[in-house]
Amino acid sequence: MVALHGGALAKGVRGLEIHPGLWAGVGLVRGGAGTALVGSHREVADLIEEYHGLGIEEFVLSGYPHLEEAYWFGEGVRPELARRGLLDRAPVRPERTVAVR
Asked: RNA-binding as a keyword (predicted)?
């Protein structure tokens, strides 16, 4: 991820946005690969729907702080995805993934 931003904020935080709503700055605060979907509930749902349109069916999601972001996603993004008919109605699997149809 450092290759995307060189480890610095020369262009500011917005300079790390590599696609609308896709932020590469996560690598500045923790190691390893990672990008962040950023925006409102609707905007994040739009990005997930865009990925779904490309054939991506499962996501590994994380946030900071973890518990608060889990609630933010569950209370806002998940209902938006359900309204769009993108959520699998099957029970959540033990590994706690959310699959899209």
From this structure: no
Tell how strand 36-37 and strand 98-99 pair up: unpaired
DSSP at 24: -
Residues in a beta bridge with 99: 58
d(CA 8, CA 23): 14
Q: In 3-state terms, the chain is what percent helix, strand and coil (to 5)?
A: 45, 15, 45
- Give pLDDT tens digits for 37-81: 889 999 999 999 999 999 998 888 877 778 998 999 999 999 999
Stated as kind and residue range, the H or E segment containing 71 is helix 66-72
Nearest Cα residue to 29 out of 2, 11, 52: 2
**Which residue ranges make up each domain of the chain?**
1-38, 39-101
CA atoms of 101 and 99, how far apart (whole Å): 7
